[in-house]
Specification:
By secondary structure, this protein is an alpha/beta fold.
Length: 244
Amino acid sequence: MKVKNILISQPDPGDKKSVYHGLAEKYDLTINFRPFIEVVGVHARELRKQKMRILDHTAVIFTSRNAIDHFFRIVDEMKVELPTTMKYFCVNEGVSLYIQKYTVLRKRKMFTGKGTEASFLELLKKHKDLNYLFPCSNIRKDAIPNFMDEHNIKYTEAIMYHTVNADLSDLATVYYDILVFYSPQDIVSLFANFPDFVQENRAIAGWGKTTNEAIKDAGLTNTIPAPTSDHPSMVSAIEAYINS
């Protein structure tokens, strides 16, 4: 089947030099970007009701840019002045660099994982005497809370934003040859919007183990799994499918 159009369940990167735009030009494709999920911030007053006090903590855990955005939003709403002694633990370098959008930190206040979950958890373990604040979504992995509980590390989980299904009703009559999903929540949103969705001849591309499991659980087929040893990126996996 010739591929003519692809839907990516993420925001448009807005960069004409992005790998997806390069793929579109190379194969004369129409590639549209549409987030299947939206992030809605929790108001500071809700956290006050839960008696969450930022200054009771000596360190903050950041696992995503959304967590950073909403943490600093809450800091502003609560009119909190963060102490210079506060430490920040980031799951990877990309997340740590993003903090510079809000503040400039000395290296000794920043602790960055090596990109794997295991390395980040070991980093937290090395500093187990701190009192951590963990800003997160209502939908998050259990790895960090479970690890903290297991090792008796003091922390507070603070839900500062909700991940909700986007309204996709305008896509009801639009057909795409490939649907690309990056998270299990994308699959939840797909069926929340289209309960009777049938894969038919569409190819589905799923990124990562948990997304692949969600696709299978929904009774769909992950036609283009990624990453794999042959295709470490989603773009290379899609290109291989186009050329197959």
